[in-house]
Design brief:
86 residues, alpha+beta, two-stranded antiparallel ribbon, elongated, signal, disulfide bond, UPF0506 domain-containing protein
Length: 86
Amino acid sequence: MHHSVGLVFVMMIGLAVSIGLPNKCAQLGEQCSKTVFQRCCGNYVCDLKTAFQGVCVKCYPLEHGCMTDEECCSGRCHVFQCKPRP
């Protein structure tokens, strides 16, 4: 029973997101917020300057904060920072 309630909840959220959110994304150099409401297009990443205010860039430079390898110009995110490849 609990699994089906969770599944229904997830499906409802997915439907609300697909219907209610604009399908627009920010291009290189445009403003972004790193949220679903103001995200960067394609492989661009949002370089936040303050909370929820940033600019779309191609990738993060070395020592920039990161979550995934794809965000870094070097292709390596280690302990939440862009690092050079070994």
